[in-house]
TrEMBL record:
It comes from the Bacteria. One of its GO terms (molecular function) is DNA binding. Residues 7-75 form the HTH gntR-type domain. This is FadR family transcriptional regulator. Pfam families: FCD, GntR. Keywords: DNA-binding, Transcription, Transcription regulation.
């Protein structure tokens, strides 16, 4: 059974507050909306919001002035804390990539040997939707994830599929705003098609070659991403 990661509500709220500050391009001294307004915006209770604000105050992102409101603190500090956060996520993604390369690489190998005509059609339909979303400039993160799930299923190894599924909490970081950028891995798009062509042709060597190209591309992008 997959373990459920415990995420405190105040951590989620503090993340949204930081996103709000960045999106609104607030500067040092700018006042945030009232507590009442913020609870409405984020759909949370006052206690969770206050806890999030105390957390941000402790990390010098905001300052709370009783009777006056909540204000953005020095932006150099805010940017510095943001850099630390991104650097931590970068290292986490690279470590996750090592494990993903090993596990999913085996799934690719098995899929190239065992994929059925029905599964080929399913992945073709998935890639057609991927292409449609890409051409329309819409988010492709979910369909990208679906593609990899279908390939893992085509490996026809329930234990490996289960391991990959249990790994999905970390794995999903590659598909959900990695390093705060929804389109960070757009460069990997063509490798999905070349990898699938090799899998459908039952060409194990070519499938692994294209998979490793995709992984190498991810690694290069993560390592060189400018903070």
């Amino acid at each position: 059974m997959k373990k459920i990661q415990k995420i405190h509500l105040y951590e989620q709220v503090s993340e949204e507050l930081q996103n709000y500050i960045q999106e609104k391009e607030l500067k040092e001294g700018d006042k945030l909306p009232s507590v009442e307004r913020l609870t409405e915006m984020f759909g949370v209770g006052r206690s969770s919001l206050r806890e999030a604000l105390r957390y941000l105050e402790a990390n010098e992102v905001v300052r709370i002035e009783n009777g006056k409101g909540v204000f953005v603190r020095d932006m150099d500090t805010f940017r510095f804390s943001g850099k630390i956060k991104i650097e931590v996520e970068r290292n986490s993604l690279l470590a996750t990539l090592d494990v993903r390369r090993a596990l999913e690489g085996k799934a690719i190998e098995l899929a190239a040997k065992r994929i059925t005509p029905k599964q080929i059609k399913e992945i073709e339909a998935c890639l057609n939707e991927y292409r449609r979303l890409k051409e329309k400039g819409e988010s492709t993160s979910k369909i990208d994830f679906t593609f990899h799930q279908l390939v893992n299923k085509a490996a026809a190894n329930p234990i490996l599929e289960s391991v990959l599924e249990s790994f999905s909490a970390l794995y999903n970081k590659f598909f959900d705003r990695p390093l705060g950028n929804t389109g960070l891995f757009d460069a990997t798009y063509p490798f999905h098609f070349t990898m699938f062509e090799a899998i459908a042709a039952h060409d194990v060597r070519a499938a692994l070659t294209e998979f490793n190209k995709l992984m190498d591309s991810l690694e290069e992008i993560i390592k060189n991403y400018e903070i």
